Please model this.
Amino acid sequence: MSKPRVATVWLAGCAGCHMSFLDLDEWLVDLAQAVELVYSPIADVKEFPRDVDVTLVEGAVANADNLELLLQVRERSKIVVSFGDCAVHGNVTAMRNPLGDPGALVAEAYRDAVTQLHGTLPDPEGGIVPALLPRVLAAHEVVTIDAFLPGCPPSADRIRTAVEALLAGQSPELAPAQRRFG
Model:
């Protein structure tokens, strides 16, 4: 019998959710024996694979690369989980939304600032810096999400509860204290 194929994805966020995932400590050894980790920022895999059973998505969708990756994740995963408050509702990453046009913000930071170094803007066409989207989006604003795992970051216990349920083919039932944001 083949092991469930599991992935974790890091979009626009601080990586706190993945740090909390690593706080699962010795349970990670049990998890590693039970699943095949096929994609993650903690593994050196360059392209999101096909036929993934469960994908945890950390971070909001803030730029063109985030958008492209999330669309691939949804197409190639059976179950997609919004992993942490940035994926669930935008959280800190979306704080730029009320500031308006991201192009104007980039221009101010890179070209118009008094302490400018070179006075040039990062070029999204050059492939180094992806183009910012007009608004930061929560994952469910882009694709269908199958489960939500709130928290900033979610605690290791909350992550374990959800992952164990998902791997058992169940919906992750979080205790009332685990359902709150933050």
Remarks:
- The chain has a mean pLDDT of 89.
- DSSP finds six helices and seven strands in the chain.
